[in-house]
Amino acid sequence: MRVGVTDCLREDKYNLYVRWIEAVDAGVDIVRLSGGQPNVDDVAGLDGVMLTGGGDVHPRFYGGPENSPLLKDVNEQRDMFELKVVDRALENALPILAVCRGMQVMNVHLGGSLHVDLPSAGFNRHASQSSTPLQHAIAIRPHSMLHALAGAMQAEVNSYHHQGVDRLGHGLVESARSDDGLVEAAEWALKDSAPFLLMVQWHPERQPESELSKNLARLFLREVNRNRQQHAVP
Questions:
Q1: Is 100 tagged catalytic?
Q2: Homologous superfamily of 2-230 in CATH?
Q3: Global pTM?
């Protein structure tokens, strides 16, 4: 299996995603997808794509306030590259797992919008001001993929973000919310006619011991393997 993982521009953080996936299957061939190369054409040879976390998506891609002083670590080169990655992944019907910023990129690609700054929008408990990460509960929608993975109607997740989904993109349905009402996960509303997609706002790669994190990686790789087998040359 070949899985593309977008470059989050920090080697230590990128390696967390790689180790998280390899803990489930050490034989996975990881391809770093980077706007610095750029290697968007490599998407055609992949079996699945993971969109990783990082800085803010530039508001011009979703009609937001472009000059907000609340923006952090904007990198338009990365934005444009990853939006192209999503284009190619959807064209090739690849399974996609989107984490934190990855969820935001996916939502924007599908015509959704973001809260530029969660505290300003009234969501005050999603990013820590210290080195200790925040944890909070999420309420999980019944009959969603996330519900099947968690085996419960709620879960405890980490929280590192100051942006989040405002308006959901076309074709998406929320699968979890935080207790203050922010969308924390999403998936296709109609799954039978689309490739696998799961978007989560937290960082499962930073909670590798969590059963939910393990189940997320297992499900993603199962769908990647299924896609590979469906498109194998006889």
A1: yes
A2: Class I glutamine amidotransferase (GATase) domain (3.40.50.880)
A3: 0.95
